[in-house]
Amino acid sequence: MAMSSSVFNDLRQEGDFCDAVIRVKDVEFQIHKVILCKCSKYFLAFFRRWSAPGQQVFNIGGLSADMMALIIEFAYTGSVHVTGDNVEELLLAADQLDVPGIVQNCCDFMEEQLSVKNCIGIHLFTKSINCSRLQHKAFSYVLAHFEEVVFSQEFQQLSVENIIEIIGRDDLNVKEESTVFEAIILWIAYSPEERKGHFATLLSKVRLALMSQDYLKSNVRSNELVKNNIECKLMARKALDIITCITPNYSSVLCNHLARPRLPNTVLLAIGGWSGGDPTNGIEAYDIRTDSWVNVSNGHERPRAYHGTAFLNGDIYCVGGFDRVEHFNSVRRYDPNTHTWHEVASMYYRRCYVSVTVLNGCIYAMGGYDGHTRLSTAERYMPETNQWSLIAPMSEQRSDASCTTLHDKVYICGGFNGNECLQTAESYCPESNQWTVITLMNCRRSGVGIIAHADHIFAVNSEKPFRAGVFYSLKCVERLAPFSI
C-alpha cells in the first residue's frame, strides 16, 4: 500500500495520467480523481454528480490553497503535518471537504493540546464541526478544571448562555460552591453594564445552600448585586433556611436546585468485603472534595467478600469472591451512569482471594482459592465479546496475592499457596502467552498491596507467618527496579 501510494504521488508530481485540475483561487493542482474519491465522499459526489460531462477543471472555494495542498498530499500519502498554527484552518477545510482521516488527525492533535487556557475555545470551536468526541473532551476538561479556567481570558469572553451551560451542570468540579459564585461575579465585572442584568439568572444556577452559613451571610447577602435585586435576595434567604433547618427532608433537598449536591469529579469506591462477621453487599463512595463517605449500597446485590475489582471502559467489575456459602466464578458489572448492576460471563474457575488487573482493554484474573485448592490458573476477559479465555498458568499456586501492570506486562507478587506465604513474583507477556519468574521480594508477603509507579513496582505491607497458623502484620515497603524486571 505504501509503495502504491508513493507511485501515485510521484505520478501526480510529474503530471502523469492526471485527469483533473483542482483550482483554489489562482492556484491549480493536477490530480487523479480516483485518488481524491478514495479519501473523501465529497469528491466522489463532486466528480460524479456535481460536474458537467467532460469537465476537467474544478473550482473549490471556502478554503486556502495551502489547505488544499495539505488535503491532496494526505489523499496520496495518508499522512498530514498538523501544527498549532494550521490545525484550526485545516480542520475546517477537512470538515468542509469531508476528509475524515484529516479530521481525526486534527482532533487528536487538539486533544493532546488541551489546557486551561484553550479548553473553552476548543469546545466552542468544535461545536461548528463534526467532531463530537473532541467537543465532549474539551467540555469535560472545562468542568474538571473549572477552578483554574475561571481565571482564563476565554472564560471572561464567554456568552451568558455558555456560562449557564457550565455552572448549571451537576458534574461541575468545585471543592467549594463559593467558587461558582465568585466566578459569576468575576465574569460580570469584566463588562458590568452589559452583564449585570444577567445576574439573577446566573445566581439561580449556583447551589447557594451548599455554602457555609457564614459565607452566605458575609459574602452573598452582603454583595451589592444581591442586595439590589429582590429575586436574588429571596434566593439567598431560601438557601439560608435550608442550611439552618435542623431536620431537613433530604428527598426535597435533592430536588431543590439551590441545595442539590454537585457530582464529584472523582470517587473512590469500597465495594463489599467482610463486615460485622459476615460478607457484605455494602458500597461506599468517598468524595475527595468534601472528605466524606456516602453509602450507595444496592440491597439487591449478593454479599461478596475476598473478590477482585477492576475499572474498565467506565464500568466497575466485581470478579469472583465468597459469601460464606459459595465461592464465586460469577462476575458483576456496575454502570455508574445508570446505577445498575449486570451479570457478565462467568469465569472458568471459582476464585476468592483472586488477583485482578486491567491491561490493554482486558481484565486478568489470576490465582485465588476455589474452596478446595489454591489456584495457579489465570484467565482473561474481553468486554467486546463478553468472554473469558484461559491463558498460561502461573508457575505457582497463589491466593491473596496482588498484581499490577507495567510496560504492557502483568506482574503478580507474593500470596499464599496453602502452606506458606510466598516471596516469589512473576510477569506475564500477552504476546507470547508466557509467565516469567522475576527477582524475589525481600520478604514473604500475603495480602500485599502492589502498585506500579514511575517505572517501578512497589510492594506495600502484608501479612507474614509468625508460626504455624499465626500471622502478623508486616509494615514495610520495597521497590522492584526496572533492571530487575
Automatic annotation (TrEMBL):
Any single Pfam family the record assigns to this protein: BTB
Protein name: BTB domain-containing protein
Taxonomic placement: Eukaryota, Metazoa, Chordata, Craniata, Vertebrata
Keywords, in A-Z order: Kelch repeat, Repeat
Annotated ranges, domain BTB: 18-84
Leader sequence residues: none
Keyword Repeat: yes
Highest taxon above the source species: Eukaryota
